[in-house]
Amino acid sequence: MAFITISGFPSSGKSTRTQQIKAHLEAKIKNPEYSGPLKQVIVLSDDSLGISRTAYDDSRAEKPARGTLFTTLQRQMNADTVLIVDSLNYIKGFRYQMYCAAREMKLRMCTVYVVATPELCHQWNLTRPDDGKYSDKTLNGLIMRYEEPSSMVRWDSPLFTVLWTEGGVPGDQIWDAITEGNVKPPNASTLQSVKAPSDALHCLEQTTTSIVSAVMTESQGFGGPVALSVTPSLQLQINLPSRHITLSELQRYKRQFITIHKKAITLGSTEKGAVDWSEESVAHKFVTFLEEHLKA
Known about the structure:
Belongs to the KTI12 family. It contains nine helices and seven strands.
């Protein structure tokens, strides 16, 4: 139900802040007064995935490392989980990719920007164990390429900035963001389109042909409402203009209508939500289409 992105320079104290956030959120979840859906806090990091600091030495090694992180976080997203991604997350395009994945799962989100000066990052990097250090060249390169989060863009907001001079994190504000914040709907491009039934094209062709035949039979050129007997079980009414309507004219409108709706059959929908492909729905739509175009 919740997704937290940690971002900052390498060796800026992100893991320390992550543990502070984790402890605060776990205390909130265990509070007897809390009865919400959240049950656990999971931290996903380079260390937990076995990603070496040397993976950031060159772009060829870094790309699969990010792929491993992204694949794993998708598997860990659950309705009862607060997922904290403790990694560099220094590329705004990657943060956007994670944001889209979280939106698709309808999770509440926030970003925590851990700030430290480059000088401090170099000092703290030296205190790490040898297998946890960045080389000076890699560290400088990552700092130079870092794309700072911004509260002005949707994938980084709400944004909480934690300076190196601060002893703690804004735990209550983060808690409010992941439990009371707006759940953003998935992007339309990520939604699976609803497939049309296999007989949709046949229904479209047969129903429109029946209506054209019924209009030609019932039309007397006087105009006004005319009852149509499309099938024994389907009776409709159409408002016709006070003029003679030709078969070629009706056939032309029929072809236009079918062409428009063939796209919906191929892609799944031309509207928000599923398209109703029943005989009655198609008939009503075609009658409406004819009324609008025969006025001209």
